[in-house]
Each structure stands twice: as structure tokens, then as C-alpha cells.
Amino acid sequence: MTEVVAALLWDGDKFMICQRPAHKARGLLWEFVGGKVEPGETKEAALIRECREELGIIIAVKGAFMDVIHTYPDLTVHLTLFHGKITEGEPQLLEHHDLKWITPAEIPCYEFCPADREILQRLAAGNIMVPQEPV
């Protein structure tokens, strides 16, 4: 099983989604920014690295929003979606084809990677508890 992490990044009432490059598996489908955890790396460190590599941003990782296990024809992933906050930089398309900030109501307008479906259902239902800033 492949450990994968992703970030749920909010800007007001909108969250970020990224469109996969056309040449990759599941090309042009939408997803949350993130990627594979490398050997010896924590999930949080992997997510910080992936956001820097893919979008040129630094994030603070908050808490986990949810975990999903999904089997694709070519691999099985254990996806952990973390709440995150951009602390430095503006998102750039360093790897993805496109990125958007959408509201949960706009989810049906985009075709997402199958592993994200359960997460998107929870977001659409409004079951969101964003961790508060430390006092």
C-alpha cells in the first residue's frame, strides 16, 4: 500500500483543488495538492515538501481531516488529508495543469480522482471542523 498525503487548504469559504498533468496517471482529473510519503519521512513532512515542490508554497499542517483507502487498477493508496494553511508564498503551477479555489457547492462541476470521492462527500455535506489557531 502506498502512503499518500494531501492538503485541504482554505481561503475563506473556498478550498484549493489542483488538476493533474495530462501525461500522468489519472491525467487532468482534479485532486488535493499532495503526494507520496518517502521512506523515513513523516506524513506532515511529506505534505510540506509536496506543497513546496508542486506549488512553491510553505504550509503549516494542522490536523488530519480524514483517511481513505482506495484501490486503483495500478496501486492501492492510503490517503490522509490534512488541514493546512499557507504561511508563505502564492500558489504557482509548478507541476499541475491548473488550480482553482472552489466552494463545497461547486464540487459537482469537477471530475476528481476516485480516491477523493468519500472526502468530497463529507465536504459537500458540510462536515468540516477546521482546527483553530493556537492561542
Give an overview of the whole structure.
The chain is built from two helices and seven strands, in the order ββββαβββα. Strand 1 (about 1-10) and strand 2 (about 15-20) form a beta hairpin. The protein has one domain (about 1-125): Nucleoside Triphosphate Pyrophosphohydrolase (Alpha-Beta Complex). By secondary structure, the chain is α+β, with helices and mostly antiparallel strands. The chain has helices at about 45-55, 115-125; strands spanning about 1-10, 15-20, 30, 35, 60-70, 75-90, 100. Strands 1, 2, 3, 4, 5, 6 and 7 form a seven-stranded mixed beta sheet that branches. The chain starts with a strand and ends in an 11-residue tail after the last helix. Helices cover about 15% and strands about 40% of the residues.
In short:
The chain is an alpha+beta fold and 135 residues long.
List keywords for this structure.
seven-stranded mixed β-sheet; 39% strand; Nucleoside Triphosphate Pyrophosphohydrolase; alpha+beta; 135 residues; 2 helices; single chain; globular
Q: What would CATH call the architecture?
A: Alpha-Beta Complex
Q: Average pLDDT value?
A: 92
The SSE string, one letter per element, is EEEEHEEEH
Looking at CATH, the homologous superfamily is Nucleoside Triphosphate Pyrophosphohydrolase
- Looking at the structure, the CATH topology is Nucleoside Triphosphate Pyrophosphohydrolase
Oligomer: single chain
Which structural class is indicated by helix and strand composition? Answer: alpha+beta
Q: Helicity, in percent?
A: 10-25%
Overall outline: globular
Number of individual domains: 1
Please give the alpha-carbon distance between the first and last residues.
Answer: 38 Å
> Hey, roughly how much beta strand do the residues contain?
35-45%
SS element count, helices: 2
Quickly name the level 1 CATH class. Answer: Alpha Beta
Rounded to an integer, what's the Rg over CA atoms? 14 Å
The total of beta strands comes to 7
Stretches where pLDDT is under 50 for at least 5 consecutive residues are none
Biggest beta sheet summary: 7 strands, mixed
